Amino acid sequence: MPVARKKTPLKLRTSEITLENLPTTLIDIIGDLPQTAYNKELELSISLFDCDDDEVHPILSTEELFQEDHSMVYELRLSTDAIGGLKKKITKWKTIGIIPQTVLVPPYGGERKIKAIVRLVDIAYDPVIEKGQVVENFEGVLWTGEIDLDPMILDWGYVYIEKQKRRTQSIILKVAMAVAMADGSLSALERKIIKSRVHHWRDNAKNRCDGMTDQKRKTAYQGMMRRAVQRARAKKLNMTALIKSLRYMASPHEWSDTLDLCLEVITCNGIADNNQFIALNDIAHYSALEPTVFENIRDYLIMHLDITKIVESESYEFLGLDRNWDLVTTRKHLRSEYKKWNSRLNTVPDGKSRDNTQAILDMIGKAYKKYTQPNPVKKPVALSKKTQPIPQPQSESFFDQAQLKLFNDSE
Fold this sequence. Notes:
Blueprint: E1 11-19, E2 22-32, E3 42-50, E4 57-58, E5 60-61, E6 75-79, E7 89-100, E8 104-105, E9 110-112, E10 114-122, E11 128-130, E12 133-136, E13 141-148, E14 152-154, H1 158-181, H2 188-208, H3 214-233, H4 239-249, H5 252-267, H6 274-286, H7 291-304, H8 308-312, H9 327-345, H10 352-371, H11 398-401
Helix pairs in contact: 1-2, 1-3, 1-4, 1-5, 1-6, 2-3, 2-5, 5-6, 9-10
């Protein structure tokens, strides 16, 4: 009677190589496949975890090839056909995973201990893996192995990156609050819009992996909203300092997010307030965005909102003028604006849009007379001892009136 061959369990090993001048880790496998894997269409799935502290965090990847389907979490899936197929017994070490170290993003930077989880998967069941964990169709996992990789020295981790992102979002939130308060009050609708944006940020942070539990994340964003409301009601929001902080911290995408949120705040009640618009103008001016971005926002406000109060008030910023321009530049800009809006007058439908277009044309005409006439030079008049000079009013923007207190409001 023949003696049954003793099966050797599947084993893993790692090795370090340089591939295209980049440090790379290889994962190899050897041994007998489990009987449940016979005559099945198989895949191999590799997930990576950071195990350098008491908690286990998934490793992210900067390359889509090494990512889960719906997140940046590292996963490498290979059909067994792609590696030459797997027979019932693997008698020689076979490479099943290639891990370029430069694509890895750990939770924290520095030297990290990383563990690889290798799963043999039945494609027919297609188990769902999220953040390195099997969450559906568990029966599709036929075998699981794990192995420690050699310690790696990696750059800034995603927990630090997310912490910086929350700090920037906190500043954006306060800027939006300051814009909302520019008309003298924070309405319930303005607060609701800002709160909705905070919930959107929180949900996105969860999908990106930020190293936080759901409760910690909820507490962090609730605290961000609460502090912003408290500062707004106490009138302790320094727009100058907030914008200064964004100039150092915000990416172009975050500047766009700032303007988008502020635009939602301004338009929520259907009325364009002049002070709010001036604040938005200052934000756009000091951002890293192209001037056309703010011009498009201004055109949207003109076409969709009630601009009566702006027409009746100081409208310098609303017309896209810069107070530092000379008369030649100012005239040129106003002529260009008049040509643009005059060409639209016959194409916009009747109603608010058409009325606003006519109103902006009237505003441009008045501005051309008001802002392009040089002040007449008067001879100085000798003052008697009892005569005092009359103080002249200064027209300053919302941004100019704020005092510079760098980063005071950025925490």
